[in-house]
Input
Amino acid sequence: MGGAANPVAADLAPRCALCGGSSPLAWTDCRDLEYFVADRFPAHRCGSCGLVFLHPLPTRAELPGYYPPGYQNFDPPRNPISAFLVGRYHAAHLATALRHLPPVGAFFEVGAADGALLDRVRARGHTVGGVELSRDGCERAWAKGLDVFHGTLEELRTDRRYDVVFMSHVIEHVLDPVETMARVRELLKPGGVVYVETPNVGSPDARLFGEHWGLVHHPRHLWFFTRATLRRLLEGAGLVVERERWEPNSCGWGLSVQTALRRRGWDRSRRPRSFYYPLLLVGLLPLNLVDVLAGGTAFMSAVARRPA
Ligand SMILES: [Zn+2]
Output
């Protein structure tokens, strides 16, 4: 290892998808301790811009197998603390969507899950559409009468254009984020905006836990951004970044603690979240103050506009 210091290893290192920089091996011990997928991939970190990515990547055919029925995004939490926090989080997303839409607009969600957000936006009188990789998610969205394409954004063929494209915790899951963002730009009307939310690999919990960070979410998270690399991705697609912010959220800390307990064998649960997880979420929330002082929480978002 030590690829950065070794010129031979550095030459063999893969190139960064964002800047072309040499990207030596960074993480070798990623494991899935939520859904217990067996496949494992190493991760590399670009020496120039800091983008972190799995290499080699899973194949398109492998991806659906990594999202089992009952994956977190489709199954609402049953305990009241998590249900409350998730409810607040979804209300904030709806407010964000409505803030950027005209009185009668067109809204598109990449990674529409079960269509809960699309359903709420449609109820306010807007036209909605989306894509979703999971068959289970699509079937739940179709049951609501929603127009959701089963597949990836790259596979969708449409002439429709949208005022808002919404991507919450999706860009880190796609096989090619540069191609995905180019397609997002095409989907947007001139003057339309994309909202992107994704984990921040520059946050204190990410730096502290490294490859054992709770949001490594292996092997579903393929790309790990910082505020700077997310901006680079958006600007590279010809979009103008208008707003960047941190989202208050203790998932990164909470899942990192759960991961640490599972790695040591002290927590032998095979469920995605253990019984104590909601208590971690609440108890660790004040760490967001530390996060902000140290440069940002584990959840970040950006709004970028397609020039008119
Ligand atoms: Zn780079």
About this structure: Residues 16, 18-19, 21, 46, 48-49, 51 surround zinc ion (CB under 6 Å). The radius of gyration is 19 Å.
